């Protein structure tokens, strides 16, 4: 495995460079077979930024290599009623294809863990597609495991006016 010099920064939604990185990384994620395989429309992106700016619990983590943003974790702080403590949920984890298999995903996971420790969170949660074995292997190697008892990730859509 090649080791590259990585650093991370918390995403600032008011910074134009960070917004460009968010767009590029989200677009790459959406075009991926694990995404919806459709590009991110500029108008949708503007709506995404406006929506994230309203979320006081949003944490974006960008990974940088040689002045290029190469990975992103979109996270949200939540609260565990059982542990009576904050937690971080990783909603999206994106590594550009050219940087996969080079330790970037692991570095990103460890960066989120560092932020969780700094914020005194009790745990980090995430969901992963059942057909994304590569991501599952990374998460397992970083100490994640299926919940006990096992949980399902369910949804219902809400009609919006």
UniProtKB/TrEMBL annotation:
Gene3D superfamilies: 3.40.630.30. It holds the Pfam family Acetyltransf_1. Residues 9-161 form the N-acetyltransferase domain. Keywords: Acyltransferase, Transferase. It comes from the Bacteria. The keyword Transferase applies. GO terms for molecular function: acyltransferase activity, transferring groups other than amino-acyl groups. SUPFAM superfamilies: Acyl-CoA N-acyltransferases (Nat). The keyword Transferase applies. PROSITE patterns: GNAT. This is N-acetyltransferase domain-containing protein. It comes from Labilibaculum manganireducens.
């Amino acid at each position: 495995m090649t080791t590259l010099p990585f650093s991370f920064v918390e995403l600032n939604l008011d910074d134009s460079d960070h917004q460009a990185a968010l767009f590029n990384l989200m677009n790459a994620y959406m075009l991926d077979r694990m995404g919806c395989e459709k590009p991110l429309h500029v108008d949708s992106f503007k709506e995404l930024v406006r929506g994230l700016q309203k979320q006081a619990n949003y944490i974006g983590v960008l990974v940088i290599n040689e002045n290029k943003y190469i990975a992103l974790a979109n996270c949200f702080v939540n609260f565990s009623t059982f542990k009576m403590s904050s937690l971080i949920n990783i909603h999206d984890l994106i590594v550009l294809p050219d940087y996969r298999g080079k330790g970037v995903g692991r570095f990103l996971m460890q960066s989120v863990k560092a932020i969780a420790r700094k914020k005194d969170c009790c745990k980090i949660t995430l969901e992963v597609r059942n057909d994304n074995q590569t991501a599952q292997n990374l998460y397992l190697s970083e100490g994640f495991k299926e919940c006990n008892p096992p949980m399902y990730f369910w949804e219902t859509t809400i009609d919006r006016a």
